[in-house]
Amino acid sequence: METLRTRTKPPETFAECTRAAVPMIQVLGRISGKWSLYIIMALLRGPMRFSELQRHVEGISQKMLTQTLRELEEDGIVHRTVTPIIPPRVDYELSAMGRELQAPLAAISDWTVRNGERVADARERYAARRNAA
Amino acid sequence: METLRTRTKPPETFAECTRAAVPMIQVLGRISGKWSLYIIMALLRGPMRFSELQRHVEGISQKMLTQTLRELEEDGIVHRTVTPIIPPRVDYELSAMGRELQAPLAAISDWTVRNGERVADARERYAARRNAA
DNA sequence: CAGAATCCTAGCTGATACTG
DNA sequence: CAGTATCAGCTAGGATTCTG
Predict the structure, then answer these.
(1) Which residue spans adopt a coiled-coil conformation according to this UniProt entry (chains A, B) (predicted)?
(2) What is the pTM (predicted TM-score) of this model?
């Protein structure tokens, strides 16, 4: 399948673009939910219980933590282990696939670090132009 | 500033995680809008006029094309050139910063290609488990 | 402890109509 | 051609309450 694989030339046809973009957008949609990245980054440090995650991911509601974890679990990025004791204990950890996300995320992170200032400048200039008009 | 730069060890403290994640999430939020990636990928092939973009990005409404282009322009990822003739001509092209997104996006794309099947399997198993319950 | 269920609102999005 | 303006539907997300 033709994709956006590392190479010098971008996709040529629209069909190529679409086939390359659709799964990427699905994944980005998942990992760019408001909280997914925070959870993944917390779990990169190691397995964690539900309540630990809630403490580590500042500001997340119980609903969104549950919901986001379910989505990540559904995609096989996060593993969920229930220990049926009272009170219940549930541990979350990244799957191998989830840990492999670190490199791609680092690539995006690097881009944001390299370009953060340029983005900020661009926004200022954009705002200035808007005000001039 | 401490970030998620390419390295073997993930961020250690929550503060590190947050500082690394916040700008990344902003960027992902931008580029993972429903249409941004399609537009960026179309423009990776070269500059394009508004109407060309609309033809290349199948299904996008005129409103969302305008809106998404404005956001990408605001961030300095896309450059907009107006030629004041009648009828008006407006060309869009990726900035240097925008073109640099290709490598990070390729990294994510590679992940999706490598793991697409595993994600699909995980979803099936998840659905099967849900039905069993 | 780890959630499920409910209610509610802001904002994204599409469809449509109009303009320099 | 390349937009702007307006309206309406949907849903992501937060706050709150309840439970095994």
Answers:
(1) none
(2) 0.84
